[in-house]
């Protein structure tokens, strides 16, 4: 079987884009005490945690959520076979067992994965969680009326491509076996060494068939985690969670679940959220946000206030902002033109346009600069901090443009500090020094997305970004550079239209590896090999800054999700 389809990646990109546009953070705290705030640094049980968000936690159904969406709120209710290690920074990129006793046992070629459930697992009503419930939970995620989740399993499971879910097909998926109540076996189309990463996604949440209410299940999903839903108003605009008394720390080493109650209030303006967290009064002293960052102006104010600065979490998420080329459009069909632009880029001005070095780190590699992705430092077209105009002019002359050239750069009009006019203007100014006149074409956000993701309308020169579904080079490089993922009549993310057999073969070879450290090294080497073709110009990796209330303790932010982990937070 081929790697995940572009349908999968379309959802991935939209999910990541929406989250980051709202301010998805990423993290390993760098400039704050990651474990405490206030006087007594010891976390205690009890109290109410308030969550102030811009985006409602819509579709609160494990079948419909993409990964753990909403900044970890779902992971308080939904447990999965595996989960992310709930630690700060790089340690948080590891996969650890959750409902299962281990991260999975593959057969020799990683086409069959077997899991055993821990003993004593229970739902909020005290009934036992079984392997059949996990199988059923996965099967219902295939139902068209419950769409929205990551469809990797449609690609990966044997015979799953046309499955329509248990409401239409009572037979279920033969590719998932449950020989007993605690064992579940997955049969895959091809080797997938990263299956333990996939098993962290909410589609692997157990759902008791007898309690399934179809599209209404989101109103009261049956909890397998430390909290249960007691209020869900206006499709996730207001969520209230209280303790699931049948959840036990004996079966869950990851979630601390300190607060007694969690009150999630959404639909708020981002400026209001930051104002409330800054003031930190009343219930807001024990408040956090999982989707709202500090902007450049807000950050400047916070930095000048020692007390506020002590309440900022810093994040790094696997995400790259870059220039994309379509090599079928002149003059970008000439590699020397692409190289010239790579040399001409002034990354200092781009970083400033993105909010400054506190909010963006310059990038010369496509892979994010984190070990789990396989990051290998390289700079194939060294532009220095402010661009190498002389080298760019030299390459343009070799490409047949001794007097420079005029090109059009397509960007989004959204004020997102990523693909927006500020970034485009910085690029325009830098390339002018190299004799390249850049005309800017700004599109409204939806038009921009539709235009750049269609082979038929993709421009030759545009701004783009990509984030990973899990911290590995696979979901980063494959959708952008695997030639078999080019979609001519749908959403396409292989913007360079690269179809290099050696690249495709190496992707397949790495996917066979169950040693994730060994796989990471090869993803890094592949990144550099692809980079030599100058199909993209990496610009920067975003950095995220978030405020939290005065009474928040035990702040943990991993490099996997980049958001403050609610399962670790204490409020007194």
TrEMBL record:
InterPro entries for this protein: Peptide/Ni-bd, SBP_5, SBP_5_dom
Keyword Signal belongs to the record: yes
Keywords carried by this UniProt record: Signal
Solute-binding protein family domain ranges (all copies): 94-484
CDD domains in the cross-refs: PBP2_clavulanate_OppA2
Sequence segments annotated as region (Disordered): 28-59
Signal peptide: 1-26
Protein name from the UniProt record: ABC transporter substrate-binding protein
